[in-house]
Design a protein that fits this description.
Blueprint: H1 2-12, E1 17-23, E2 26-31, H2 36-45, E3 53-61, E4 71-79, E5 84-91, E6 110-112, H3 121-132, E7 135-137, E8 205-209, E9 221-227, E10 230-237, H4 245-249, H5 258-261, H6 269-284, H7 290-319, H8 324-343
Parallel strand pairs: 2-5, 6-7
Antiparallel strand pairs: 1-2, 3-4, 4-5, 8-9, 9-10
Helix pairs in contact: 6-7, 7-8
């Protein structure tokens, strides 16, 4: 399968693609960065390929593998018409001398953006830039998406040390009981988050909804541009719940990381646990007994329903009036599902 795809691509773009050994029956090809944009269009538009959905983009740091170039981006593609997956690996080109990062001191590896080929690449490339430090040339707004705008460095690089950030306490900072603590109690630094260039901050009003707001039901900030009562643009900021799972996972044994998956979606944690352990099983070539596979899928389906009961119930309560009863019904169903989990 991989050889067939590589041959077809090389017929149209000679020397651009190299086939790699299939990984767990999934075809993998490596594309030179200078040809990647052209290859991406061919993968999307060719009727026999039709990889019209970009599922994920993530960077790899091959520092400990001693591979050159050090950084590469992996693109997980899916063909909806043909129901086929493809992994495309694109090694990043070496950075130019003199600095090209946001602080003008970093030398970031380069790749072309494919946001004009697959719109889903927009946020995925921002995440890869943020956490791995790969710069995507031509991206419409290449800014951090998970880490704060003033964060230094790129946490998923192999040479980025484990550690935390200083926690600033402002509660009761003037209380005499805490005077002996001195500078341990301080107000956190404040900085302005950059807004997209297309937002008209001069002619219209820009207001913040969140990150703590009853309407968001979570830690989400929306920068809303208002023209009177008309919403012109909304810029979401989603990184407030980023907890560094990937960096933590690099430093844990496989079985020790399972509890961390609970926090990825605390309304349906077992679904995330299942996705993770299935990945580990695939890597280790382990197959569970059939009854265990059935049991965990059934439990995940119950938890998925319970998760839906939360958003449906809270949404009904937000609407107000008679739908309030729907919220109570939803949480009654969720309680019954949780009772089943307690019995298991």
């Amino acid at each position: 399968m991989t050889d067939t795809i590589a041959e077809k691509l090389n017929q149209s773009i000679p020397g651009a693609v190299e086939s790699l050994p299939e990984f767990r029956d999934q075809p993998v090809v490596e594309v030179k960065s200078g040809h990647f944009h052209e290859v991406a269009r061919l993968l999307r538009d060719d009727p026999e390929l039709k990889y019209n959905l970009l599922v994920d983009v993530y960077g790899t740091d091959r520092l400990k593998l001693r591979q050159s170039p050090r950084f590469a981006a992996n693109y997980e593609l899916y063909s909806i018409p043909h129901n086929k997956f493809l992994r495309v690996i694109v090694p990043a080109t070496d950075p130019p001398a003199g600095g090209n990062g946001s602080n003008k001191k970093e030398n970031l590896p380069l790749l072309p953006t494919v946001t004009d080929v697959w719109p889903t690449a927009n946020w995925l490339e921002r995440e890869t830039y943020d956490l791995m430090g790969i710069k995507f040339e031509g991206h419409p707004w290449l800014h951090r998406i998970m880490m704060p705008d003033n964060w230094v460095g790129h946490p998923l690089r192999k040479d980025y040390p484990l550690g935390g950030e200083p926690v600033y306490f402002s509660h009761d900072q003037d209380n005499p009981r805490f005077a002996h603590l001195g500078k341990q109690i301080m107000v956190g630094p404040s900085f302005l988050t950059e807004l997209p260039e297309e937002m008209d901050t001069e002619g219209n009003m820009v207001v913040n909804v969140g990150p703590h707001h009853p309407a968001t039901h979570g830690v989400l900030r929306l920068a809303v541009e208002l023209d009177g009562e008309t919403v012109r643009r909304v810029s979401p900021e989603v990184g407030y719940l980023h907890s560094g799972f990937e960096k933590t996972g690099e430093n844990k044994r496989y079985e020790k990381f399972i509890p961390y998956c609970d926090r990825m979606d605390y309304a349906a944690p077992m679904c995330n646990n299942l996705a993770y352990v299935m990945t580990v099983e695939k890597l280790m070539d382990v197959e569970l007994p059939e009854y265990a596979q059935f049991a965990r899928v059934i439990l995940c389906e119950l938890q998925r329903i319970g998760s839906h009961m939360i958003w449906l119930g809270t949404h009904a309560m937000d609407v107000g009036g008679t739908p309030h009863a729907i919220g109570m019904y939803c949480f009654t169903i969720r309680e019954r599902i949780l009772d089943i989990f307690e019995m298991v």
